[in-house]
Amino acid sequence: MNKKLLARYLLDSILGLVGGGVALFWSAGRIDWWPGWGVLGVNAFMMAAMGVVIFRLYPDLAAERLSPPKGAKRWDLAINSGTRLIQLARYIVAGLDQRNGWTGGFPIGIQLAALAISLLGYSIIPWAVAHNKFFSQVVRIQSDRGHSVAASGPYRFVRHPGYLGMLAFELAIPIMLASWWSLLISVVNVALIILRTALEDRTLQAELPGYADYAQRVRYRLIPGIW
């Protein structure tokens, strides 16, 4: 195991959690806000599960994800930057909503259900990583790593299960935070994820050998029976 890569992964994960916590609790004006801790808990679970899968199964994927080589699509870099900014804005708006009571009363049962859905959604991502050693942070054909088609595990059902998990998280988190305003912001992220899915799928069909045949066998990109 590469200890330097592991240390960097842990540092990046911790910084990400701290940044999310600051955005949530600073804007809310309080730290005794359980949905905020719920968000951090779901993110910590996903980061820990991803770390275990990557460093146990595909150590070379850690380097790819932490420092992707050149070759990423420009449109993907733009989408990634946009989604990160929107995620930050969503947390800040949710905190301000909590502080100012814009949304008002919200059934706790629905919040708990949203917590469960967000956890389920983020459980799909490490499952997908376990069956795809080319699960990079960016869209690029990894010829330097012998890129090939992933077709087992969740890839038997949809072609982009990681994005499906992200969609579930994006839609559930604002509901857990009890903020309709942050849900409106998350809808923008959902649109960007769907756009990225379509563009990545087109890239893979055009540039990755065997992917077009795989797409004929697994018809749906994100949601079985729909798209």
Low-confidence stretches: none
Question: What portion of residues belong to β-strands?
Answer: under 5%
Provide the CATH top-level class: Mainly Alpha
Report the CATH topology name.
Answer: Four Helix Bundle (Hemerythrin (Met), subunit A)
CATH architecture: Up-down Bundle
Q: Report the helical percentage.
A: over 70%
Mean pLDDT: 93
Q: How many structural domains?
A: 1
Count of individual beta strands? 0
C-alpha termini separation: 39 Å
String of helices and strands: HHHHHHHH
Task: Describe the structure concisely for a colleague.
With 227 residues, the protein is mostly helical. It has one domain (3-217): Up-down Bundle (Four Helix Bundle (Hemerythrin (Met), subunit A)). The protein has helices at residues 3-28, 34-57, 59-66, 74-100, 108-130, 161-176, 180-207, 211-217.
